[in-house]
Each structure stands twice: as C-alpha cells, then as structure tokens.
Amino acid sequence: MIDPASFRIDPGSSVPPFEQLREQFVERIASGELAAGIRLPTVRGLAEALGLAPGTVARSYRELEADGFIETRGRSGSFVAAQGDPRERQAKEAARVYADRIRALGVDPALGLDYARAALRD
C-alpha cells in the first residue's frame, strides 16, 4: 500500500493540485517505484491525508486511468496497471496514427519522418 503522506501538494504552485498529484503518480509508476498491481489509496483516504477535496483526487485518478497508468477494479479499488510503461505505449500508438495518416495522404515516408523530426524539435 502507498503511504499517502509521501505525496506533496504545493498550494502556492500555478499547477493545479489534481495535476501535481497525477504527475507524482506518473513519475513513481514510470520509475518502477510503484509496481504493477500495487493498490492505490482510496480517493477519500488520499484526499483527507493531503487536505484536498475528494473530487480533486478523483480527477487525478480518472486521468491516470484514461492514460493507462492505473486501473479501477470496481469495489476492490484502484491499482497500478500491469501493462508496461504507459508513456511508451501511448507514444507508439501516436506514431502508428501518424504513419497511417501520412500513408493516407500519399506523402513519401522519408518526408513524413522529416516532418515528425521537425515537429519534435519545435
């Protein structure tokens, strides 16, 4: 189980609290600190421990789930998802979508790669 006190929310930050919390989860999951299958604190429990509204924590959890970092198992709670690094998975999917679009437009693949490189530099 995760220690709720290990999360820090800076009330003076320009980053909204739900995003601060989401970013901390993403960092810990990506680093392996939070391994697949680890149970997350309840929304209410984490909200109380951090002095946040339950809706704030719920929004973080919804976004984490939408991005594939966590999964909710009904009444059993929320857990770190067991599917590799979600960022890599999403990046591969974005590349697939881009490649499909370049092909559909009839753009030369080499030129498509040039466009992608230029976009990543911007």
How does this model look, in words?
There is one protein chain. This protein is mostly helical. The protein has 2 domains: 4-80, Arc Repressor Mutant, subunit A (Orthogonal Bundle), CATH 1.10.10.10; 86-121. The protein has a two-stranded antiparallel sheet with strand order 1-2. The protein has helices spanning 17-31, 43-50, 54-66, 86-105, 109-121; strands at 70-72, 78-80. The chain contains 5 helices and 2 strands; from the N terminus they run H-H-H-E-E-H-H. Helix 1 packs across helix 3 (54-66) and helix 2 (43-50) crosses helix 3.
Q: What brief labels describe this structure?
A:
elongated; 2 domains; single chain; mainly alpha; 5 helices; two-stranded antiparallel ribbon
Short description:
This protein is mainly alpha-helical and 122 residues long.
Low-confidence stretches: none
Q: What name does the CATH topology of the largest domain carry?
A: Arc Repressor Mutant, subunit A
Distance between the termini: 41 Å
What strand line-up does the widest sheet have? 1-2
Overall geometry comes to elongated
How many beta-strand segments?
Answer: 2
The residue fraction in helices comes out at: 55-70%
Q: Supply the number of structural domains.
A: 2
Organism: Galbitalea soli
InterPro entries: Tscrpt_reg_HTH_GntR (IPR000524), WH-like_DNA-bd_sf (IPR036388), WH_DNA-bd_sf (IPR036390)
Pfam families: GntR
GO molecular function, one term: DNA binding
